Here is the input.
Amino acid sequence: MNKTPIIAGVDVGTGFVKAIIVQKEPEEKRFKVLGKDENISSGVRKGVVVDPDRVGKIIQETLAEAKRESGHEVDEVYANINGIHLFSLSSKGLISVSRADQEIAQEDVDRVIEAAKTFSLPANKEILQIFPREFIIDRQRGIKNPIGLQGVRLETEIVAVGGFSSYSRNLSQAILNANLQVSDLILDPIATASSVLTLKDKEEGVLVIDFGAATTGISVYEEGDLLHTAVLPMGANNIRNDIAIGLRVDTETAEFVKNKFGSCILGPKTTKKEKLKLSSGEEISFQRNEIRKIAEPRINEILGEVEKELKKISKNKLLPGGVVLTGGGAKIPHLVEFTKKRLELPCRIGMPRRFFPLEEDPSLSTLCGLVLCGMEIEEEEEGKINFKGILTRIKKLFQVFLP
Ligand SMILES: Nc1ncnc2c1ncn2[C@@H]1O[C@H](COP(=O)(O)OP(=O)(O)OP(=O)(O)O)[C@@H](O)[C@H]1O
Ligand SMILES: [Mg+2]
Here is the structure.
């Protein structure tokens, strides 16, 4: 029997570092989870690695447990680049087809994408990945794969996603510090989207909101392709901190209150009183409505920022596929109904479903997305996906740092 490859991913989050080792089932679109572990993160600020030594240790520890469980040796991983430094912009390119018989080749595709990349970037920022939205041959629009078609004039519209190079370097360094190689770095919102969206969602037009600990990642897809992505500097920890300040308790207690009484954040209004004994022996009491008054404005603020991103691309209230909510913060009870009302779009929770045996959990979306993207990259390399140009790999930017 043909052995399918084993792939490992590490989600370096602000709240948690998670690792997974999977193997694709032969001839199936399912993944067997061989090992998985997660630990509380440290040295990551708003999605960005600020202390590669500390993060390296946590990655090493987390992957070691996943490896032990799987019984497999793993020495390279796919990991996620996250942070508010990520930006996306659209651009166009135009070239003349080079071959005398006018048949479009990979080389023409590479050239037209290169032509679309001629925009100026602020210092220290660089393009990490290019997503061609469509190709246009002699004014004929909507072509996804132009190779083998004939034409004189080849145009493309791309979405380019970039960020600060030093942040990606810190992440690579943390992985190297864990005695691992970087299989590739994957944009966090892209990894997340790949595990919660179907092709149908992407065709219809959909928004993914990854409600993490300290960041909220968004990605918008339309007609099958990425249209926009951004990372906002707020997440579920902001709600925890608001509760800590509002109830005058430490952040650990506030986290407990947030998760235990989560349903009063957005649930039905009630003046019911709750009592809670703290580890110090002190007892606190609060009305359930108090939690709502503290947390609801913050959620409104975050969704307001998401709405601004939709307005930037003129897609506010205009995505038939609706909103897919994911990330640990998506577990806040009633958030689906609240988002539906606030953004005036259909809304559902998204979580990875093609992995077994694995609990269906929205906080695992990015982690599972990393190995899905990894599998796609490896299949492209093996020639199983015959049109390249979609997945320009990020790793090449960091080869210089690899031993
Ligand atoms: N049941 C729950 N109710 C409310 N919030 C929850 C629940 N479970 C987890 N969370 C929150 O989810 C967050 C962690 O989510 P996740 O693991 O997606 O974050 P992360 O990937 O580490 O962070 P980031 O993506 O911002 O770097 C924490 O802030 C945690 O409080
Ligand atoms: Mg995350």
